[in-house]
Amino acid sequence: MQFAKWTVVVLGALCAAPLLATQAATPVASQPETKSAGWLLQEVKAEAQTIEMHANRLERMAKDSDTQWVQFDQQWNEIKPAQEALQAHIWRLEAMSSSLSAQQRKALDDSKQAAQQISARTRQLFKMIDQQGANLNSSSFRTDAQTLVKDAQNAARAS
Prior knowledge:
By secondary structure, this protein is an all-alpha fold. It has helices spanning 2-25, 33-63, 69-95, 102-130, 139-158. The protein starts with a helix and ends with a helix.
């Protein structure tokens, strides 16, 4: 049994080696900045849409008194990584802002504002979800989730 495991590991490494060598030989900087900026704006849109989808679920769950805390937590665990990725893409776009087209700069500015609102709203929702004994079916939680949906829609639309 031990021999079979090592055989699989060695064969996997041999199969992956050409792929890794090809990726290592292709420098990331070889892509034009505008293509990279366009890709980042698409990523901003995708992350915003992910946040929107899960915030919609949070809002629906807040209306259902049978929803358990763990279900809220699962949605939060989907929103937070998307929010962090969105913010990282915004920072990267800001770093290359001097090479962006006017249209890309406008999209960045609009997305940046929406991303800041998303960050603030996710912090607020996290405080509510993390608070022991919090009423996650409250109108304030529902309102915060609705606002997060709108902010995410604005970020997706902007990018």
